Amino acid sequence: MTISQTRNVGLPLMKLVRWKGVPILQQLHLEEQLLRTSSENWCIINDGTNDPTIVMGISGKPAQLLKLDSVLNDRIPVIRRYTGGGTVVVDCGTVFVTFICNKDAVPGLQPYPQPIMSWSSLLYALVFRGFGDFSLRENDYVFGNHKFGGNAQSITKNRWIHHTSFLWDYEARNMAYLKLPARAPEYRVARDHLEFICRMKDYMPRSVFVDRTIKAVETYFSVRPVQLEAMETNLNSKFSHSTKLLTEQELEAAAFESHFEKGLSHSL
Amino acid sequence: MVLVWRKNLRTCRLFFVRPKCADSCYFASDSHEWVKIDGNSAIVGITDHAQDHLGDVVYVELPEAGAAVTQGSSFGAVESVKATSDINSPVSGKVVEVNEELNSSPGLVNVSPHENGWIIKVEMSDTGDLNSLMDSEQYTKFCEEEDAKH
């Protein structure tokens, strides 16, 4: 037995899926299904998604969060996902890392939002050691006081998911689709998007990030890579996802309602 | 909050008193919901222990009235900042009423988890479901032991 094999003895198994450019809707659908129907631990790394897409949290309201005229004009897809948290614009410059775990997979970890968030920051501290002033700040991953990673979670009776969208790079024009959110972390201090976020590519190469992430996961789990095709055949095609792509009609209705309310408030 | 006059020190001090579910409550320890019998209905909510660990609740996903619920299975969710957490029913039956107040005031789950923060009322299909739940004393002890482990 090699030294690394010896180290892995006793660690829980985690299956690793590595994708490149898979559509974010497909990723979210798979995650939700694995959370609800699998009994195994999973890590999914999706290196970029194919088209720019807006992804809101479970309670996201398009009229409050998005500049809908631009979104509709540019035909940007809008998704409402199954996890909590805020709104992101994702594209080929976004790297996604997801952990789906049984509640006892990490010894001593209570399956609640803050303990899971803290544990994730310990894992990523290993990833970013030596590459920047990394920390977890009010649920965001930051270098200094600039956000580069947004987190969200979903917790069921016996399992949890923690997923992150990392801004390896982004298009400034895409950030313009987002309004300043009403609910924002205190450290944001009313900065607009471009002053608040930073690009990971200014700190570390993309392939180094993915490799170091897998290495960090190996300190907690015995990692086994699996192929996407093999997984898809085992999934139940009847599973009902709560993650939804909003229709053009829904976005137009939200835009209309927003204009109507604005008109009403001006006339009062 | 409770204001207490300390006669020997001639001072007042404010104490935070944790909300307590009535002794007639039952508890699902594996997912931290409570249930209280009210006439023909069972009122369901999440416990003070749960809301304390979840953080500020910003949204509650409610079922429709008329929906079926199954003991131990999810019927809705609460969102707290970055996380959604399933709410599981401690009893089986049919939802007869949901707490619509939570649509505009989800924080009721935090400030009054056992009273105004109730989530659904259920017409129970089997009162025997209560036999598998904990009473108040057992649940309190369970939570203390769980917190002590971490």
TrEMBL record, chain A:
InterPro entries: aa-tRNA-synth_II/BPL/LPL, BPL_LPL_catalytic, Lipoate-ligase_2_inactive. SUPFAM superfamilies: Class II aaRS and biotin synthetases. It holds the Pfam family LplA-B_cat. It comes from the Eukaryota. Residues 39-225 form the BPL/LPL catalytic domain. This is BPL/LPL catalytic domain-containing protein. It comes from Vitis rotundifolia (Muscadine grape).
UniProtKB/TrEMBL annotation, chain B:
Residues 41-123 form the Lipoyl-binding domain. Binds 1 lipoyl cofactor covalently. It comes from Vitis rotundifolia (Muscadine grape). The keyword Transit peptide applies. It is found in: Mitochondrion. InterPro entries: 2-oxoA_DH_lipoyl-BS (IPR003016), Biotin_lipoyl (IPR000089), GCV_H (IPR002930), GCV_H/Fam206 (IPR033753), GCV_H_sub (IPR017453), Single_hybrid_motif (IPR011053). PANTHER family: GLYCINE CLEAVAGE SYSTEM H PROTEIN, GLYCINE CLEAVAGE SYSTEM H PROTEIN-RELATED. Its cofactor is (R)-lipoate. The keyword Mitochondrion applies. The lineage of its organism: Eukaryota, Viridiplantae, Streptophyta, Embryophyta, Tracheophyta. The H protein shuttles the methylamine group of glycine from the P protein to the T protein. The glycine cleavage system is composed of four proteins: P, T, L and H. Pfam families: GCV_H. Keywords: Lipoyl, Mitochondrion, Transit peptide. Belongs to the GcvH family. One of its GO terms (cellular component) is glycine cleavage complex. Its main location: mitochondrion. This is Glycine cleavage system H protein. SUPFAM superfamilies: Single hybrid motif. The modification N6-lipoyllysine is found at residue 82. Gene3D superfamilies: 2.40.50.100. GO terms for biological process: glycine decarboxylation via glycine cleavage system; protein lipoylation.
